[in-house]
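Q: What structure does this chain adopt?
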Amino acid sequence: MTPGRRSSTFTRLLRHGFTDPSAAERLLDGPELAPVRNDPVLLEALGATADPDLALHGLVRLLEAQPTPTAHRELLDTLIAAKPLRDRLLGVLGASTALADHLTRHPTDWHALVTYEPHDLHPGVTEFERGLAEATDPVTLRVAYRRCLLSLAARDVCGTTDVAETAGELADLATATLRTALALATAAAPEDAAACRLAVIAMGKCGGHELNYVSDVDVIFVAEPTEGTPEQQALRSATKLASHLMRICSETTVEGSIWPVDANLRPEGRNGPLVRTLSSHVAYYQRWAKTWEFQALLKARPVAGDPALGQAYLDALHPLVWQAAERENFVPDVQKMRRRVVENIPAAEIDRELKLGPGGLRDVEFAVQLLQLVHGRTDPALRSGTTLDALGALAAGGYVGREDAARLDEAYRFLRSMEHRIQLYRLRRTHLVPEAEADLRRLGRSLGLRTDPVTELTREWKRHTTVVRRLHEKLFYRPLLDAVAQLAPGEARLSAEAARERLIALGYADPAAALRHLEALASGVTRKAAIQRTLLPVLLGWFADSADPDAGLLNFRKVSDALGKTPWYLRLLRDEGAAAENLARVLSAGRLAPDLLMRAPEAVALLGDGDGDGGLAPRQRAALEQEILAAVGRAENAAQGVTAARGVRRRELFRTAAADIVGSYGTETSPAEADQGALVDRVGAAVSDLTKATLAGTLRAVVREGWGDTLPTRFAVIGMGRFGGHELGYGSDADVLFVHEPREGVAEQEAAAAANRVVAEMRRLLQLPSADPPLLIDADLRPEGKSGPLVRTLKSYEAYYRRWSLVWESQALLRAEPVAGDADLGRRFVELIDPLRYPAKGLTEDAVREIRRLKARMESERLPRGADPKLHTKLGPGGLSDVEWTVQLLQLRHAHHEPGLRTTRTREALAAARAAGLLSAEDAEILDEAWVLASRVRNAVMLVRGRAGDTFPTEPRELAAVGRYLGYGAGHAGDMLDAYRRTTRRARTVVEDLFYGD
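A:
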């Protein structure tokens, strides 16, 4: 061959899509293709395949395998003369190494591709049964199955059938295979066959008439005894037949396997009997079946065995499918199923998962099936087991938008085509998009993408998954808006009843009110209404993910009514990724955050992605104090100044609550915070810092109005309890002590009067009725309690503590920390109390007994009547009081010698005690977990109910909302209570040992 000719051939091969022209030239010049090497038809046909190199290699192998020279010549002649065979054979060889291997082992099977008659173009079960009729054992059945699959794949790769038709043919071939396998099993055990009537019910994709090339074939077996046969004997015989059928299809032979037959969708799954009678099936589904099992029954279809029994199975069970939406647990089940779980997919594979990944096939299938369950009860037109047929019926009935359905149909067809071609290559069960460029190139070309196959394939694949991801949730909610909007002529809409059904299925308790809210928000032709129609489908989904969707939607309407004319509001929700989802979470999580927001709706701006004062990150105490003091400085009087300070407090409480809710729920882009302790610490620090800044501003306002710049006495506020420990919750009072010291030359009586006036005015102004939540100041931990003076001088404290101090006061002082006022006076107060709270000799036995006695009395006297002690977060066993008193006892005993224990914070002190070896790491972890959980519950109760509480709510929706905040899905409130009891029970055991033990 001359160099010029070689160069010309090399170029032609490149132009026809060969990636290894040198190897292709060698094959074309070889003896197998010598008679046709110069025929232009061959090169054109090879270039039209998905992988010309693969097709050429497969053709040479097939020619080499021909049994005689005559057969070799016949194949070549037919290949050149008959375009249908040429396109089919080369198309298969360029798409599937597995089918090329089959042809090499069975070199005359290429004849199956010659026939090109109308009845051959769209075969059904009958034609496939005819193709399998000669099978006499598992091996010959596999050969016949592959021969049928060869023709089916040829029609697919040549475009004779589309993806839906191909999936239907694969299901028909599976049906014919199951029937043949059952016939083989019957022939092997005629006595068993005579003892029973056995029906095979296809489930999953086979039942739905939409099978893959390589997939488990899901089945359920139902049997009845023949006349005169005892039921148990009949079931044993049916089980033998069913087991043999499964082995015939699933076992690996010299010809490989066909596909696994999977019966795990049967009642009780792997733990249940393989075969049941019809009455046993019905009893199970009536009493025990879960929602997902009715969802699976959508695709049930009799395919083999006794047809009358198969039909009886359908007649008995299908009505139950359409009653599933009326079941008591349907809504929580739906909410659970809608939060699609992908944890079984390795992280490295999730972006390549066609089936289970975000925007994958499962999203489309699940959404369609769920809508069928909701609306199929009243509309029989929706009861198809085939995804695309059901999607079309949903669009025709107005249950999904026509445009959305068309885009989903297109995306689903493209993704299924990708799945088919990926599996066809090696006939292996996989849903992963390959990574190798050669594989991606072949895949792209097989789908008609020829210019730049890899780039085009990646772009189209991502485009379609994005469409699915965007429309998956929208499918549920867009028609609800259309139901209350003006539609174009000819557009179908949800009926009022269908809209009601869907809202109930999504967890809305008052669907009529929900529809009124939607109409108010989305009707009209204004720009505001248009943006709302864009936002609401997504927001409705987020509301439905909460424990109280009705409240979320109502609150959203209130906020929108308040801010609707503000230009930035809807723009924020539309354009800032986090804002809309954050708002939806906050509005549907309980009463506190929405109440705070409604008092000043402009705070919704905090939910965006903004920097500076925007966003949900807590602000530092110094910045808060600076803002409040500046506002007080601008105010005309103390009342105005404190009003400004309370306004800042309200806004920052909302910021803290919103951040806590978003962190607890998680969002689509960031998971829920895994460290529960960090969530508690953030809330405690933020609310405590905010309270300190508010007290500092109030003190400044009161002093300025009454005395100008300087009060006649130095004045400090000492935080106590959870306030001093940086552990305030949303509903906590501010426990404090007030201390003062007369300035030089000021009479003690004048100084005391001034200090008492300051305290009285601070308490009054912070509790005045207004739009802002009050801040209650509690000074009951002062010397002599409620009987003692509200304010004392430092010397008075010193004298009292020296002469009269009781052990409970030393314990209370463990949490004392200056929070506002004169810093030097606060520091000297701490120096005064340190010897009391960190005694050099620890505690006497009498003091320890007194602490234990006080603890027992507090539990018995203060626990509310009728409360369940085991669920009381403060005084119950293993609750806050147990943990805190145990830690404080360790501090009183050991803090003088262990500096790490000299902290006002419970968790810090617990960690220091563990580090000092005062308790084991395991005990410390148990106590910490219980304390964090109890604190989280208290915060949750305040967020959900809008008022403080130490016990779990009894109202079901409120209890469910607490559960969602704590990370429990719908329907798992009982699990939450069990977990709380278990955690606190373990903590109480540790407390018994450490606090009450010797």
